[in-house]
Amino acid sequence: MHTSQPLDALLSRRSQKLVQAPAPDAAQLTQILQAAACAPDHSALRAWRFALIEQADIAALADLAINATRQSGREITPEKEKNMRTWLAQVPLLIALAYKISHDNAKVPEIEQTLSMGAAVMNIQNAIHLLGFASYWSTGLGTYTDVVPEALGFDGLDYRFVGFLAVGTPITTAGPAQRPDVMSFTHVWKPTPARQ
Ligand SMILES: Cc1cc2nc3c(=O)[nH]c(=O)nc-3n(C[C@H](O)[C@H](O)[C@H](O)COP(=O)(O)O)c2cc1C
Asked: Across residues 112-132, what is the average pLDDT?
């Protein structure tokens, strides 16, 4: 099989929840976010939006998310809260992820807008990995409340909020991930022979 170093790098990416300082520096972060703008983007909507939450502010975000989740009627047990706070205490950077909705766009239905956002986040995760850092996409932390997206500047009328990336230096060395054989998900289509 032909291999190339960039492809090997791509194939070795895996999510890592437990990250610590240092986070990517400002120049690296610019490169990482620039990778988002390389995502496929029908009609050049440029809808991707990001909010950076630095280490000093992550505890306040955790307070907001825990309160908002409880107020929305979802349970967070004291043990879960403790685990969440312990995890976040080490995380040096969160990137909040959203896209600006192009309402009633006849050319670009919202599924395509969502897909472009997903592609942008994937590019960000790959760029983080290529620079030797790690990330973890989470839709915990009050993603599906009204309060958290709004507090981050992404009100639900105009934006679709899709969660957070925890970004930093991996705390443990993870072995290779178990990946499925994707050929088992793939088939070759052939036209049905025309009926006589
Ligand atoms: C949109 C999205 C949201 C996710 N939210 C969570 C989450 O809240 N909690 C969680 O444990 N994993 C979540 N994950 C999964 C992890 O980010 C990660 O993809 C998973 O652990 C598999 O690791 P891998 O990326 O190395 O395959 C989410 C994934 C996606 C795509």
From this structure: 98
